Amino acid sequence: MNKGIKVALIIALLALFSAGAYGAWYVNNIYKSLDVQVISTEKEDLGITEEAEVKINMFENSKEVINILLLGTDKRAPDENSRSDSMMILSIDPVNNNLKLSSLMRDSYVKIKGHGSDKLAHAYAYGGAPLALNTVNTNFGMNIEYYAVINYGGLINVIDALGGVEIDIKDYEIDMVNAYIGDVAKIEDVPYKAIETTGLQTLTGVQAVGYARVRYVGDGDFERTERQRSVLTSMFNKFKEIDTKDIPGVAAKLAPNVETNVSLYNMVRIGTSVINAGMKNVLQARFPTDDYGYGKLTTKWFYFFEKEETIEELHDFIYENEIPKSQKKD
C-alpha cells in the first residue's frame, strides 16, 4: 500500500543533497538507483485538458504549487499485474509553506481511457503509472505531470532507517493490524513482532506497513486512507528531526524501491523548493469526500461521486488550504 507514501521523502531527501551537503556527485549516484521511466509529456496523453488548466490557473499560487501522484500497489511479484492499493496527490506549496496529501478513494467510479468506467484502482492494472496519471487528471480536473511508485520493502526499510513511526493503535484495530503485519512479513520474507498493546507507540517498518493496509475495521476504506496519511505524516515528522549526516543512509534505502518519471533536474528543483520554503506542516484530506456513498453496479461496489463538486473541493484544498467541510475537526 504505502508505496506511494514515500515519495514525499524521496523528493525531500534528494533535495537536501542538492542543497550542498553532499554535492552533485552524491545526488547523481542516488538518482541512478531509482527506476526512472520516460513517458509521454503530451497533454492529451497525460489527460490534462484545457478546461482543467484554465480553472487551476485562476489560483494565484498555481504556478508555484508542484503536484506529484503517489502510487502504492498490491504487487507481490515483479511481473505481476496489480492494482494501485493506494493513490495520493502530494502537493508541495512553497507559497503557504506546507505539504498537502490528498487521498483518492480507490473504489471511485471513474472513466479510464480505453477501458470504459471502472474503479480508480484498476487504472494502474490496465496501463501502469501513465494510465493512472491520465485517469486522475481526467476525472479530478488536475494537470499533474509527475508520479512515483514504491513497494513494500522500500517503505519498510525507510521507516526502520528513520527509527520507526509514532502511531496511535485503537483497540478495534489491533487484531486486524497484526494479521496484516504477518501478511506483509511473509511477502517480504522478513521477521516481525506482533503489536501487543493499544495506544500511541513506535511502530517498525513492517508494523507500520501492516497498519496502513488495514481496511476491514472501523470506517472501511475511509479510515484506511487516514491510516496511510498518518504513516506518511509521522515519517515526515521523523525526517525533520534526522541528523544531516544520516540522510544519505535513508536515501540509499529508499531510492532502489522507487519508480518515477521525475528527472534529476526536476528532482533537484522540487527538492530545493521544499528546503527553501522551510515547510513544517502536512495538511490532509480525502477525495471524493464523505458527502457521497457506495452503490452496486452489476456485481461490483463503487464509490459514486459528483465530479464537478469534487474537482472544486480538491482545487480549493490544494491551492487555498481549504479542508472539505465534511472532514473538518470540531
Low-confidence stretches: 1-8
The run of helices and strands is HHEHHEEEEEHEHEHEHHHEHEEEH
Helix content: 40-55%
Number of strands: 13
Task: Assign an overall shape.
Answer: globular
CATH topology name:
Nucleotidyltransferase, domain 5
Our count of domains comes out at 1
Q: Which structural class do the helices and strands define?
A: alpha/beta
The averaged pLDDT comes out at 84
Which CATH architecture? 2-Layer Sandwich
Into which percentage range does the β-strand content fall?
Answer: 15-25%
Alpha carbon gap, first and last residue: 30 Å
What is the alpha-carbon Rg in Å? 19 Å
Supply the number of helical segments: 12
Placed side by side, the strands forming the largest sheet appear as 1-10-7-2-3-4-11
* The CATH C-level class name: Alpha Beta
Largest sheet: 7 strands, mixed
What keyword list fits this structure?
12 helices; 45% helix; two-stranded antiparallel sheet; Nucleotidyltransferase, domain 5; globular; alpha/beta; disordered N terminus
What does this structure look like?
Helices cover about 45% and strands about 20% of the residues. Helix 6 (about 150-160) runs antiparallel to helix 10. With about 325 residues, it is an alpha/beta fold. This is LytR family transcriptional regulator. It comes from Youngiibacter fragilis 232.1. Belongs to the LytR/CpsA/Psr (LCP) family.
SSE map:
Blueprint: H1 7-21, H2 23-32, E1 35-36, H3 43-46, H4 50-57, E2 66-73, E3 84-93, E4 98-104, E5 109-112, E6 116-119, H5 122-140, E7 146-150, H6 152-161, E8 165-169, H7 174-188, E9 199-203, H8 205-213, H9 220-241, H10 247-254, E10 258-260, H11 264-277, E11 281-287, E12 293-297, E13 300-304, H12 307-320
